[in-house]
Amino acid sequence: MARKKTDQEADIQFEEAMKRLEEVVHRLEEGEIPLEEAIQLYQEGVTLSRICGQKLDAIEAKITQLIEEDGQLKQKPFRVEGDI
Amino acid sequence: MTSRQIFSVSDLNRCIKQVLEQDDRLQDIWVRGEISNFVHHTSGHMYFTLKDSQSRVKVVMFAGYNRFLRFLPKDGTKVIVRGSISAYERDGAYQFYAREMQPDGIGSLYLAFEQLKAKLAGEGLFAAERKRPLPAFPRRVGVVTSPTGAAIRDICTTIRRRYPQAEIVLSPAIVQGTEAPASIVAAIRIMNSQPDIDVLIVGRGGGSIEELWAFNEEQVARAIAASQIPVISAVGHETDVTIADFVADVRAATPTAAAELAVPHYLEWLERVRQLDTRMSRALSSRLAAERKRLEVLAQSYAMRRPQRRVEEAQQRLDELSLRLGQAVKQLMKGRKDQYQHLSDRIKRYRLTDVVDRQKKAVGLSRARIDELMRQRLDKSRMSFASSLAQLDALSPLKVMKRGFSLVYASGQLVKSVEQFAPGEELMLRLKDGSATARVEQIYREEKRDGTEEDGPRG
After folding, report:
1. pLDDT of B121
2. How far is residue B358's CA from residue A75's CA, in Å, rounded to a whole number?
3. Of B166, B172, B287, the CB nearest to A61
């Protein structure tokens, strides 16, 4: 169950998650909603902000290059000049 | 035949001028040639001859056009000139009226550029509505450029710095020389065959106009236009504008700028996420605090604190009222009682015997008075009677008779006048101590009626 949830979380696009998170914050700040809903929204918001944060966690940029060899397109790691 | 029209020279020249100007083919033409007899007149206009190995044509470029020239024309310069043909009436010479001029070489490229630009613009490839928005958070950024140039380095550095989450996919291309256009087109095609490339940067670093020329080629422009992936063009420097720039979805001034346009800055977004997170927490906690406060207020409220209190209060009030009621009744009773007592006392004080006594006394008094009055009256009457009696006694004939008077009766009647009898009649005399009869002898009448005067004759 938890595993599946994580998959679902991972599935959501960052943009979509951000949009939803902004919506959640806006609704919470408006303060016109029932408390139960507010708490539910908050939980959703926390999840979203965690997802967004994770998605933004600095990962070393992957650079690949596409090379055609013998009529086959191959992916190879690419090293930028000057990089060690 | 007979009346053949004869032109004046001016008419002829005007007519020729009109013919030339009416021909659309001659109104926007490009001519290549070498400049000779160049004169830059003090008026600002330029006059020169354009020639090739066989021919020459006179050219005038007015100051209004030649002030935009980016080079200084001089004799021997090979140029490409754009303009129209007309006639100079005064001299009867046709000449070329130049509007634009480029040095040949670069000039020919410029010409090709302008022509392709006009063609593609005519096809609507540059139309604003064709431009696609770039994804805000691309996961894979495609790059079509040289694997060895400055461009790929700038792009990678920029993307790593701003948004290391994005994967960079390079499709290497030859970006200058004769093979360049086909290579760039192939690289764009390969990119489009890949899944999940969100945005594509096509470009190269700075160079001469010839070095950048591949990006002015029609096939490259068409490949960019045909790309399924949104394209950012990034050719050369700020001032270099290529056909690729017109046809791309977004034009970046440089490869670095292209990378900046392609990806967001993750720290900014991280900050935004943090801010949203903070705002969300603040919103909820302030909401919770507000609700807690509300709850506290309610819990602290009079009704909630002592629910019994209301009943008690009512009870107290009831007690108060019943007490007041009792007091009121008591008061009323007391009032009545007092009133009764007062009356009773008054009654008690009121002695009937006294009244009776008083009345008796009054009666007594009245009686005494009446008695007294009666006695007085009686006395008075008695005295009056006695007086009357005395008077009466005094007036009694008997008394008078005692003094010598007698009463005469005739026929039983007291006689007061001689008229009452006649002579010979018997009279009866009554005296003090008896009576006697007498006979009337004679009657003497007297004039006087008064008894006092009659004593003489009587007898």
Report:
1. 92
2. 153
3. B166
Dist CA B378 CA B373 (whole Å):
8
Is the confidence metric ipTM above 0.85 for this complex?
Answer: no
Mean pLDDT, consecutive 10-residue stretches, chain B (459 aa), reads 79 92 90 92 93 92 87 86 92 92 76 85 91 89 92 91 89 91 94 92 88 91 95 88 93 93 87 89 87 84 71 83 88 87 79 76 82 83 81 74 82 84 86 85 73 46
pLDDT of residue B447: 66
User: Cβ of B172 under 8 Å from any chain A Cβ?
Assistant: yes
Q: Are strands B167-172 and A63-69 parallel, antiparallel or unpaired?
A: parallel
Q: Are B56 and B50 in contact (CB under 8 A)?
A: yes
Contact B184, B231 (CB under 8 A): no
**Angle (CA) B370 B375 B379, round 5°:** 150
**Measured between alpha carbons, how far is residue A67 from residues A61, B69, B170, B258, B389 in Å?**
19, 45, 9, 23, 197
- DSSP element (H, E) containing B60: strand B56-61
| Residue (of A71, A73, A26) closest to A45 by Cα position | A26
Nearest C-alpha of chain B: how many angstroms from A21?
7
pLDDT the model gives residue B2: 56
Q: Is B159 on the interface with A (CB under 8 A)?
A: yes
Judged by a CB distance cut-off of 8 A, whether residue B389 touches chain A is no
Instruction: Give helix A14-30 / helix A35-56 axis angle, nearest 10°.
Output: 150
Tokens linked to A80 = 């930028």
Could you tell me the strand order of the sheet in which B435-439 lies?
B413-414, B407-410, B426-430, B435-439
Contact A80 B152 (CB under 8 A): yes
Cβ-based contacts of A38 with chain B (< 8 Å): 284, 287
Instruction: Identify any residues that bridge with A65 across adjacent strands, giving them in sequence order.
Output: A76, B170
Of B165, B279, B287, the CB nearest to A31: B287
Which two tokens mark B433? 């101590």
CA distance A44 to chain B (A): 10
